[in-house]
Amino acid sequence: MRGPLRIPRMDHIERQQARALVLVDDKSPLGHMLRDAEAPAHESWDPHAQRLKDRWIGGYQRVQDVRRAAVHLLNRLVERPAERQLDALADLFPGDPSHLGKGQSRKRGSRTGSPPPLPPTRPAALQVDAPTGQLVVRHSPQAATALVGQTWELRLAYDTSRGNPFNAFARGVAQGAPDFSLLDGDIQLVGEGCVVEKASHNSIHFEVKEVEFRLTLSGFDRRDVKVELRELRAEAGVAREDDAA
User: Fold this and answer.
1) Each residue's pLDDT tens digit, 165-175
2) Which of 145, 215, 216, 237 could form a disulfide with 137 if both were Cys (CB 3.0 to 4.6 A apart)?
3) What is the C-alpha to C-alpha distance for residues 185 and 23, in angstroms, rounded to an integer?
4) Residues 7 and 43 sit within 8 Å (Cβ to Cβ)
């Protein structure tokens, strides 16, 4: 609500079993800014409204912050508590799990046979680094071949405490309030040695032009970002998933 006025099309928490009420002082600077983001019917706060662009600096991000406020708070409230995982190192130290936490020592020679070693995995072709608020994609030093001429798809979503983060992002898009948008300039893209094309709110395609290429994305908040990378092979008509972080 903005003052006494109800804004009906701002329900972005349908996937949560909760209710939320967002109140904005009608006479505050934020209230004036949100009024400029409303159409004549006063049904929603539109971050793309022309009056908002004409009268405010940084209006897009501030309107988005208000639209997402309830979602962000609920996501924090439903985070899973930390759990003890007693079998986390079972592959390295196989044995009878009934002795865990009982202070009992095993007799020498009672250890069962170790599982056979796993086959070596193929080194990832791309490396993803995540400094605060950024993602950096570049050629992995462990990869055997250069990637010049290859085209890749990068897909992003904020991680969630439960469920698939990419499905959660898609629901936010359907409700008109994605967590971020590559199309609207929420996230800044800088490509060095590659050609970048925005494909959707949370995905881009980039073609590698130089061996030491670098793709930098900035503007994320402090939440963890889930990343999916796959090579696009136009000649075969298929895409090969290479890495997920």
Assistant:
1) 999 899 888 88
2) 215
3) 27
4) yes
